[in-house]
Amino acid sequence: MKFQHVCIAAIMSMAVTAGVQAQVKIGANPTTITSNAVLDVQGSSGQHTVMFQDGQVGIGTTTPATNSTGLGVKLNVNTAASNNQAIKLSIGDVGKFFMVPQLGFVGAYNLIVNEGDAGIIFPNAGGASIGQGAATSRGFVIAPHSVNENGASGLKITERGYVGIGINSPKFQLEVNEGIGFGGFGGVSPLVNTSNKGAIYWNAVQPGIGEVELVNYCGTGSGGFRFFNLPIGGTPSLSYDIAYIDLAGAYHVLSDARVKTNVQGVTSGLSKVMALHPVTYDVHTSKLLTDGKVTFNADDKTVPSVGFIAQELYKVLPEAVHKPKDDTKEFYHVNYDGLIPVLTKAIQEQQAEIAALKAQVAEVAELKLAMSEMRQELIKVGVRKVKVTGSKVAKR
Hints:
The protein folds into 4 domains: 2-78, no CATH class; 86-119, no CATH class; 139-254, no CATH class; 269-341, no CATH class. It has 4 helices and 25 strands. Helices cover 20% and strands 28% of the residues. It is rod-shaped. The longest helix is centred in the last third of the chain and has 57 residues, at 339-395. The chain is α+β, with helices and mostly antiparallel strands. Helix 2 crosses helix 4 (339-395). The strands form 8 sheets. A 6-stranded mixed beta sheet has the order 1-2-3-4-5-6. The chain has a 4-stranded mixed beta sheet with strand order 10-11-12-13, with no helix packed on it.
């Protein structure tokens, strides 16, 4: 027992300065202690674990407060830049969560979850549970250290699972403050000059207009935009192509004979066109439909337009109108492209009538010509008769 006390005394020293603090040194060099440390544990390799009076703790460093971020530090873990110097959180003796330097991205710490999902769990606060009325702005932020949790910069994941990029309080599953780039490695900043990429912007090309801007940096390709409608489990391919917009802005829809059945010719085009009621009108841009009644909001604007009234058009050409199942909750819509075949048929019928009229006019013209020729012949005959009669009278 006496020998054990001697060994402890050999490796541990305590210095008490009146009115200041007690200092404890454990390990190598027991008579030398880090300045201002209340506890200093030094290993045989020279590394220190220290605790300061104000609660700062350094593992692998004697200066836990030293950093380049300008942030206050309570715990500073300094490991060597190698994979065997990880910070480990365990359940039992099984490592579940690691912070490892020089793995993946060199020169930075990388987080590794050994089993399961990494998660940030929010406890109930103020009586609100997750997904049950809790504030959508509370969440996890990845941002520059100069921007706090409430800043409008960086990436925010709220407790409801909403993600905001440059948005502090996202109101959608994903909300982005600037352009979204896709199609290549690396991000896309607003209005960049690039190639072989796509991007979606809002109010960037024409600030103040409020337009959604879909941009295609076609690069060396032919360019354009293509739309697909996939079944459950389908993979995007030209088999599911429904429309595209070409480089000149022309809109093309699927119209292959191989995807059409029950094909029938359009009839009575002209009579349908004659039954149409084209009108001019002002269309309201901000409205609310409640129990079948429409009210216009305070920010409502009107746009002068020309077209048809959907309810009227439905009586003449229902194929060109989307009639809602419940018009107290949904508006009527018109497919103006659906009028083209009817207009085409009307023109064909009208041209047929014009051709028939032309044939009749030609016949009348021929009859008039024949009658004119006959008249001329009759006049000639009459003149000869007059001459013959006159000569007989003269002889008498």
